[in-house]
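hey so u asked for the seq, here:
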Amino acid sequence: MKKYIQKNKLQTLISFLVISLFALSAQAHFGSKGPFGGTVTCSTVSVDTVYFGTAEGGVFESTSPALISWRARPVGLKSGKVTAVAHTGTRLFAATADSGIFIFNGKFGTDSYWNKINSGLTNLHVTSLIAINASTLMAGTTTGIFITTNSGNSWTAINTGLHHLEITALEKAGTRIFSTSMDGGVYYTDNNGNVWNDYNDFNTDDVGGTTSMSYNAISNQLLLVNEAGLFVTENANTATTSNFSLVSVGLPVNYAISDLSNDGTNWYLSSNAGVYTSAVTAVNWSELNTGLPTMDVKAIVPFKNGLVCGTVNKGIFKSDLPFTSWIDMNVNFNNLKVNAMYTGGPQFILVATENGVSISRNLGSKFIPSNKGFDDSLFVTDFTMASTLMVASTKTNGIYISLDSGLNWSKSNAGLASLNIKKLYQSNSILYAIDALNHIYKTSTPTLNWVIMQAGLPLNAIPTSLAFFGNNVLVATYGQGVFVKPLNGSTWSSYNLGLADWNVTAATALGNKIYVGTDGSGVFVSDTALASIHWSAAASTENAIPHTSLMNLNGLKIQARATGAGYVWASYKGGLLATSTQGSSWIAGGNQFNLPSFTDVNKITFVDTRVFVSTENNGLYSNALSEIPTVPVTPTGILTSNNIDNTTLKIAPNPSTGSFRLNTEGIYGNVTEIIMYDYAGNIKGTFDGAQRQFDLNLESGMYVVLIKTDADGIYSQKIIIE
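ran it, structure tokens below
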């Protein structure tokens, strides 16, 4: 059914449909971009699915037997620090180091999410988790063991008979459950924890560092590791006394085992010396490390006639029988700390992770390491560019530059009082830097002789962000509000009128408005005219955040700011906000963008046809700008969805280079006028109603094509120009 407006209204309505970003969230899910890898802490397998818990990034799953790619399951987790995962066949559970236990069974629209299930759980530092049946689970904590018989609706402590309560591992052996503790010792229960029984001999009793176990159902053996070594005992699920014997032949000296497992025929272990295996019948260990880029392996699990292991920093690897080599399985596994990111055309991305600096020249499809010239202690904090000059700041070694597109880097620290540089900025080929001593510097490239520009700032001012507007630069500070000075001026002046929160975390400018984010009071907006700077609170960002009540998120703590795609963007913990109305209203995808709910978005940038966000612990995410609507704003107002048809008009190709064709099949009436607008609502061209083929010379970006008909119809469609 077509939508129309009256002819007498056409003259006053010259802007477009506001499309809810929330409504588009089903298409606008940010997907992960490389570099891939990260740190695994735990694992479990359910038929064709492998689950990995990570040190900072929540839970990842791969439902393909070939483990072709991974999918993050982040939404709803209040912590990325996953210590154990368990699967009952119908439900997935995750234990965390600081937020208790979660069950993955919630729904919000088409999105699944985690629910916290901590009722009765008096210690939220959970170290281990096992599923006994579909509704019964046991959880080990640093102060004892808890059980649930109703899928986590309630937990009860079950510590009778235990001498040590800092639990490190739980293991199921038929109807018997074993527990171990950091203080040493092994215990079992045959009645779901009503009573725990001592299962120690002289090799395990009060021996510290008992951290991992594995039960072999075929041989009925229990394998465990403690500070004294690796031990096995027989008749594990029936015997009331143990007889642990040392089984460490073939293992290296001074190794540290992190995980034990078996497939019935063979034992497997992961350690800081890599992966080792031994037959069950005659224990003699041999290494399986060919192809592993690191020996620091945290988790090992048999899967589909093969092995899957998780490492520190390097991610996930798989080896199939006969285990001759390991293959990288890190597609979409992005549990890396991203310290810095810079994007620019064409298709250029510069990113620094805990694994070093990498460059992509194809929008993140492939990243190539670019670390030549950096010190071994590399910790890049920020990137920027001035013309062809690449600039990187570091935490310990100051500032580096590259004159050859990242092939080589060299230091450029003249004038710096500190080598701990936090932020970099560039405006009109002038570089700016903020260091850990709260100094602000600038330099004119290519001289790169840094000069401090502190005059007028309070001694206790903590700069957090810079923004540029007109011929001025604004510095946001934590605790002292904002200050402004002319680009060529020497002294900062305070501009805090109307600013109710002086803990300013981020700043940006767009058009004739300046936007600042705060640590507890949301976003404030002001005009850019110096004589008119008076801050006013933007409309409540909390009301714009889907999942706010669901996820218990605080949308008022703004962490990053950017402008692009017709919006002013802001990030909060686990989501994005956007306004196209100068802060009077906000829309958001929040967690429906598929961003982890526990991570910080530390930068928002745009390149070609995509928006990129970098996160503290979860790598890069990206989304096509074509899936995020622009909102052109004009003085005469905005059409509503009842006035316009935004589905019938077709454009191909889209994206295009400026050459495209309109398909008007299905449109009611004859086309009388064709208008093209840019994202700001400016008319970029008007065309005869009969024209269908276009060859336009336009800058890269997003545009809207609008057509009018003699039947009072209005139709529109977005197009990306590359």
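Confidence is low (pLDDT under 50) at residues 1-27, 543-555, 630-642. Residues 7-17+631-721 form a domain with the Immunoglobulin-like fold (CATH 2.60.40.1270).
lmk if thats what u needed
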